[in-house]
Amino acid sequence: MHEETSALKERLLLSLSKTRKDGPGPSVSVALSKTREKYYAGSVDSDTNLLDFSSEQCALLLSIQQQDFSIIDIVTLVEKRVAWENLLSPLVVKVLSDYSIRTGNTLSYTLLDREGTTFFSTKNVLELTPYYKPTTNIIEKTKGGTLSSNTGIFSSDTETVSLLRKYSREAIARNFPTYDSASGYGAVALTADGSYFQSGQYGSFEKRLNIHAEMGALISTFMNHKKNVIALGVAATKFKESPCEICGCCRQFLAEMSTRFDLSIAYYCFSLETDDYKQYTLEELLPHPWMSLKK
């Protein structure tokens, strides 16, 4: 039995999964760092299925937002074991390969069933993708440098809008681009108890696997056992003098999460260098969202 089995089983509830009769069900992963830090995250499913995020990528997202680029091992536990070829997702392999290429880390990967039995393991994910080799150099931010934590408690003596502006701008530095000069996006989610969670965008060579900053901020919040999000702020390097806008897929994702957890979130879009901003409700961002899940 793998030593991480008990810890992973306890965290299966982190998975925000839809029930699928033909699938393995929820999964939870841990990203293990050279620093001995561990980052646990569950899978996130969407109504559209296009906005699904694997537990492996969510675990890497949490480590990246803490500016820990020293992950060397990913261990995933699946609730239901089916044929292993149905579980070794090519998309997940691409996510792990992308991370390994950009950081220069040799990354191992292990799949466990609920009993802790290993049914797939590799010591180097790049060996799984001999024909998938995006050309890139190791990005500079993975070579060193630190930022303060991306989580905390809002100070009560400062205006909420000012803090959302400040932390969304700061969150841009937490992005994980595919190349050093890429545009940056940052978001911060605020909960009812004053907690905040920042995220930059998680870029991918396989564009289908991007996690936008707004999505990352919500995922970080949920994986830290917080669901009561009341506000979300966004900023971007592309929008220096005018407020940025939230893209269509983020609007759909935000609508789905708001419905799932019965949230009423105020959205703030900031410019990078001026005090201008726009405030929206979900109904203004997406008046007619498509939904399949019931509350």
Mean pLDDT, all residues = 91
- Counting H and I runs of at least 4 residues, what is the number of helices? 7
Identify the CATH architecture of the largest domain. Answer: 3-Layer(aba) Sandwich
Order of helices and strands: HEEHEHEEEHEEHEHEEH
N- and C-termini, Cα separation: 37 Å
Percent helix, as a range, is 10-25%
Overall strand count: 11
Q: How would you explain this protein's 3D organization?
A:
The protein has 2 domains: 5-140, Cytidine Deaminase, domain 2 (3-Layer(aba) Sandwich); 147-285, 3-Layer(aba) Sandwich (Cytidine Deaminase, domain 2). 24% of the residues lie in helices and 21% in strands. It has a 6-stranded mixed beta sheet. It has a 5-stranded mixed beta sheet with strand order 2-1-3-4-5. The chain has 7 helices and 11 strands. By secondary structure, the chain is α+β, with helices and mostly antiparallel strands.
Short description:
The chain is α+β, with helices and mostly antiparallel strands. The chain contains 7 helices and 11 strands. It has helices spanning 5-10, 55-65, 90-103, 160-171, 213-223, 248-261, 282-285; strands spanning 27-33, 38-42, 71-78, 108-112, 118-122, 151-153, 185-191, 195-200, 229-236, 266-270, 277-280.
